[in-house]
Amino acid sequence: MNPEIIETVRHALAEDIGSGDVTSTACVDATRQAAGRFIARQTMVLAGVELLPIIFESDNMRLFRKSGDCAADGDVIAELRGPARLLLARERVALNFLQRLSGVATLARRYVDAVAGTRCKVLDTRKTTPGLRELEKMAAAAGGVTNHRMGLYDAVLIKNNHIVMAGGVTEAIRRARSAELPIEVEVRSRPEVEEALAEGVARILLDNMSPAQVAEEVRFIAGRAQVELSGGITLETARAYAETGADFLSAGAITHSATAVDINLRIEAL
Predict the structure, then answer these.
(1) For residue range 201-250, what is the model confidence (pLDDT) as tens digits?
(2) What positions carry a catalytic annotation?
(3) What's the order of all strands across the beta sheet hosting 263-269?
């Protein structure tokens, strides 16, 4: 497991437990042992299951599902045994991660299913919860989408504000070559598409266009660059955009608007 993810888990536990779980310490005998079962309460795509042994610091755990697996209402996701106080103290952190990340994976799978049968791949974005980007992108991948750039450091994506500050599409592209990375540029009109093609960019991002406009630009580009689509693409419109012949569509909603799924942890005394 990535050390940064382990540190994120430790921070979450410290945030919640602080100096100690005063309620469990007061109510539960230190020698009491317990068993817990994580149970799905709706249909979902799972993500974050592999965090559970880290959260509970336990090898005495059985994982019945892994990230990317589907679960239905009533399915047991994992079982563990250990000190009752430990299970009670870490229950909420475990559920917060599992419910949130599985929510992202479930919404991601819905986008992937919406474009099934087309050549278009779904991408995620940088619209993630601060501090949880790696985990949320792992969850998106578990749902079947393709991870786009992790941050500002690993790909060149020239957006409208960069173009304005650089003095135009052509100038922005020429300046960006110093990064020595493949260049993607966001465009909003045919003249900007022509400038991008003239500069030989690897990928063109068509932003906030209708499916009809996109189809026209895809025909014009004719394979001279990969085509990505963005801008308010929803589950209801994703297929219409995918059928234009574009290579990719990106949807920030996969991470910024995913709803946590319903998962229960049932704890019983031993």
Answers:
(1) 999 999 999 999 999 999 999 999 999 999 989 999 999 999 999 999 99
(2) 92, 127, 159, 186, 207
(3) 61-63, 76-83, 33-40, 263-269
State the fold for domain 117-256. TIM Barrel (3.20.20)
Alpha-carbon distance of 194 to 170, in angstroms, equals: 10
Domain coordinates in residue numbering, the chain: 3-111+258-269, 117-256
Compute the distance between CA of residue 148 and CA of residue 144 in angstroms, rounded to an integer: 13
Whole-structure pTM value: 0.94
Tokens of 224: 């001279």
The domain 3-111+258-269 belongs to what CATH superfamily? Quinolinate phosphoribosyl transferase, N-terminal domain (3.90.1170.20)
Cα separation, 60 vs 31, whole angstroms: 17
Maximum pairwise Cα distance, the chain: 73
What is the 3 state secondary structure string of the chain? CCHHHHHHHHHHHHHHHCCCCHHHHHHCCCCCEEEEEEEECCCEECCCHHHHHHHHCCCCEEECCCCCCEECCCCEEEEEEEEHHHHHHHHHHHHHHHHHHHHHHHHHHHHHHHCCCCCCEEECCCCCCCCCHHHHHHHHHHCCCECCCCCCCCCEEECHHHHHHHCCHHHHHHHHHHHCCCEEEEECCHHHHHHHHHCCCCEEEEECCCHHHHHHHHHHHCCCCEEEEECCCCCCCHHHHHCCCCCEEECCHHHHCCCCCCEEEEEEEC
pLDDT digits (tens, 9 = 90+) for 175-199: 999 999 999 999 999 999 999 999 9
229 vs 244: CA distance, rounded Å: 10
Whole-angstrom distance, CA of residue 122 vs CA of residue 135: 18
